[in-house]
Amino acid sequence: METVLVLDFGAQYSQLIARRVRECRVYSEMIPYDTPVDEIRAREPKGLILSGGPASVYADDALEINPEIFELGIPILGICYGMQVMAHTLGGEVTRTGKAEFGKTELSVTQEIVLFDDLPATQTCWMSHRDSVTTPPPGFEVTGTTASSPVAVMESTERKLYGIQCHPEVVHTPYGTDVLKNFLYEACDCVPSWTVVSIIEESVDAIRAQVGDEKVICGLSGGVDSSTAALLVYRAVRDNLTCIFVDHGLLRKNEATQVIDAFENHFHVPLIHIQAEERFQKKLDGVTEPEKKRKIIGEEFIRIFEEEARKLEGARFLVQGTLYSDVIESGTRDAAKIKSHHNVGGLPEDMDLDLVEPLRHIFKDEVRNVAAELGLPDNMVWRQPFPGPGLAIRIIGDVTFERLEILRDADFILQEEVRRAGLYRDLWQSFCVLPAIKSVGVMGDERTYAYPIIIRAVTSEDAMTADWARLPYDLLETVSSRIINEVPGVNRVALDISSKPPSTIEWE
Ligand code: XMP
């Protein structure tokens, strides 16, 4: 598999570069900027990309690159800080010119050289920098400039080293993907061959290599991630797979029945259905702190899987539908922990099972493509994400049966109306949240003192960022009126209008 690795210098959205490369059908992964050179060499990448970063190359804590990386003899593209660190390390000059550039800028380029081959001589690009490369390193040619950046693009065709000050990975650089394609196909000589089919084939091979003839269990939630993971593992190990569906009592209305029906229609694998509402409820009794809830739920899932594995003549492997975004949010070495996604950071340290996570390196939209290719029906492929800890992280404060019922009924109404309005697939997620406050209302001639329900609906590409959805007023009106009239214990409906960042999609 041809691979191009992205060295992460801490830019907020470094993973977007890896994602764009994959959209160009070349496999890409993000790795820490200081990954040992031998490790990089062992991966035999066809090329490297140095990401942007928040720092200045002259800052005291500036992230430095090991100069040996430039001796690997493979093409390297530096983007923004990545370009500056390349220039600084190879003998060029980076200066704080006082001419910062943020936003759209006009870029003039030399068309015949690699990065802008066949692209317009002047074009818009998106900039976000304070320092600028003022002199390229020896052997580099300046192939692009802007009003404020005398060296906006630099290339050494001989050494196959390239630097670009603007961000080709963002949509505001209209020819950005073409620049990446030029780097990938012309400089790195990659063939655009990484497709959904190759993801499937490679995953199946990797799963076989990992588990051999051992028995495997899969925690199935009914969502597209775990269903896809289960189908991939089924292809790899056939009858050695058993799926386990744990009803932790934190599911939405009618969800357990729907999951089991869908499973029986589309899978030919044994399914064990564990009803564990009381067990989870006991553990969550009185727990209000979000991370504690997540850890308790994550641990309880694993204990149940361990018990079931022992019953199945010692299954040693547990399949989970963990995605790349779950891994990032749960904190990697260079990315701060935001919350413990129950299938990553929520896992207990002492665990008898080895994890099989075939989707760990891919994003939701890639999973959906794989799912469709594997034959999952549309309604499963396009199911909105639902978090492993379920409604427990949408109920702020105590998770009681009474509060679960309120949230379930309200959420059911929202789902029904969103679908009726034809918006279900346009929204990344739409759900209700139950806060731990009450407010005063008047119903009939009576005073009420009851909970509000908060509507959260977002659009997103991959859950790393999200915007609040501009739901039509008519829809909001219907939902509000139905929830207040039909759900006992609710007297007010509010709308969450926060984007991510700075908020997150879920409330806890
Ligand atoms: P946040 O709230 O971090 O959520 O912006 C990002 C996406 O991840 C989902 N999510 C989870 N999924 N286990 C999961 O499988 C979890 O513990 C978990 N927490 C959040 C969330 O619904 C959103 O799509």
Concise structural overview:
The protein is of the alpha/beta class. The chain has helices at 14-23, 37-42, 81-89, 176-187, 196-211, 224-237, 255-266, 277-284, 290-311, 324-329, 364-373, 378-381, 401-420, 473-486, and strands spanning 3-8, 27-32, 47-50, 76-79, 93-95, 101-109, 122-129, 132-135, 141-145, 153-156, 161-164, 216-219, 241-247, 271-275, 317-319, 354-356, 429-433, 439-443, 446-459, 467-468, 490-495. It has three domains: 3-187, Rossmann fold; 196-381, 3-Layer(aba) Sandwich (Rossmann fold); 401-495, GMP Synthetase, Chain A, domain 3 (2-Layer Sandwich), CATH 3.30.300.
Give a description of the structure.
It contains 14 helices and 21 strands. The strands form four sheets. The protein has a nine-stranded mixed sheet with strand order 2-1-3-4-11-10-9-6-7, sandwiched between helices. It has a five-stranded parallel sheet with strand order 14-13-12-15-16, with helices on both faces. It has helices at residues 14-23, 37-42, 81-89, 176-187, 196-211, 224-237, 255-266, 277-284, 290-311, 324-329, 364-373, 378-381, 401-420, 473-486, and strands at residues 3-8, 27-32, 47-50, 76-79, 93-95, 101-109, 122-129, 132-135, 141-145, 153-156, 161-164, 216-219, 241-247, 271-275, 317-319, 354-356, 429-433, 439-443, 446-459, 467-468, 490-495. The chain has three domains: 3-187, Rossmann fold, CATH 3.40.50; 196-381, Rossmann fold (3-Layer(aba) Sandwich), CATH 3.40.50.620; 401-495, GMP Synthetase, Chain A, domain 3, CATH 3.30.300.10. The protein is of the alpha/beta class and 508 residues long. Helix content is 32%, strand content 22%. Xanthosine-5'-monophosphate is lined by residues 326, 329, 338-339, 341-343, 385, 387-389, 429, 463, 500, 504-506.
